[in-house]
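ok so heres the complex, two chains, lmk if somethin looks off
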Amino acid sequence: MKKFLILAIMMVFIAGTTSAKKPKQENIRYDIECAGNGSQGTYLVKVWVYTKSSKLTSEVLKKYAVHGVIFKGYAGKTNCAQQKPLAQSPVLESERADFFNAFFNIDKAYSKYATEVQGSTERIKVGKEYKYGAVVSVSKDLLRKDLEAAGIIRGLSGGF
Amino acid sequence: MKKLILIFATVAICLAAQAQEARAKKPTLMVIPSEAWCFNHGYTEKMDNQGTEVITPNYKVAFQTNSELNLVISKIGELMTERGFPLKDMNLEIKNMERINAMNRTMTSKTSGSDIVESSLDMLKRQANPDIILELDYTINQQGPKKSVSYNIRGLDSYSNKQVAASSNTGAPSFSADAPTLLQEAVLSNIDNFNSQLQMHFDDLFANGREVTIGIQVFSNSAVDLETEFDGHELNEIISEWLYQNTVQHRFNEMNSSENFMFFEQVRIPLFNEKGRPEDTKSFVQGLQKFLKAAPYNITSKVDQRGLGQAFLIIGDK
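and the predicted structre for the whole thing:
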């Protein structure tokens, strides 16, 4: 009986320590801004990702560039036109959570719409966190067409 | 069993046909250079309007001689086609109208040699009528060796004469890029904003109906006017009630009225009639015409469409 008790306590302890070792899901913030005029069918954006991690892959930067084009859009600045998000509703992400979870986290389909401009990555230490930046070209026409085909956003000629 | 299959097939075909019909008429779009652009570039002509000299834009010469204008319009056309909205080409419309005019002038009947009857009103109505006009204006700015483009595009709803979309900006100055490249850049960087506003307008159409204006007038030989009473109600009240019952969310504004005329603005007509077919201003007013023709009113009337978004019902005669 004692053996069982010791075994049970050990198992609980091991489970506790392994779960404590699990990395916490960090709530990453990001900004998106215009980086110039992209070629036809693309937006050229600069994405800034804020994280405590000292390493960040270009995939993460591409992910947030696509996320920004779909849900945030970006403000205009001198010689750069403002662009609205592709999403027509501010609650689209939560309404179609299944689709976007697969799109960004499971299938990672976002990757095919983004290309990082070589040599554009920057890393700046801001307080306790890092600010990573990169210029990303997002194929917005293709992205829009695919989202329309999947029924996530409505096309301009939808209903006619 | 065969009968059952036949019935199912017939029902499926009917449903498919109904689904096809239940699509609203797709608005037609046409790019027109703004009057300011025509005046700035010297594409004008003088016309004599009953003794008064009037200067009007000369679109034909603009299209024939300005390659930049053609480039910008074809770029907009290319991008709009990608979004499912091929544009009506104004240059071709002008040529087409000239061709029809020339043919009408020479067309005679085989036996009697009589020509085609066409009033000046008919000729006026035969002009290109896009649902939405994309009014285009641009300026190429030169500062020393630097060039930039200021670009402005406005979407004007022909039904309500309201601006429904607009986008404008001045592009980055460049030492090396030529004007056509800068113009293409301007089109590319503005088209998405413009289209997202256009989408909002279409959403509004689907939710609240098309916005039109409707007028009621009386022929001088009419036996009734708008104050004639039927069962204790004046005709103008009856017409207002019909509009209340038949507009989307009962939305319309009665602007002015007398015993001889009524004028309604912001009349929201449904995109489809009760049969599921696309509705326009004329067919909507024809509904009122039929209502007044029936007992107890028995009023004869004429529907006169004046542009896409305006129709008049003239009561008392045809």
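quick notes: The CA atoms of residues 47 and 53 of chain B lie 6 Å apart. thats all i got rn
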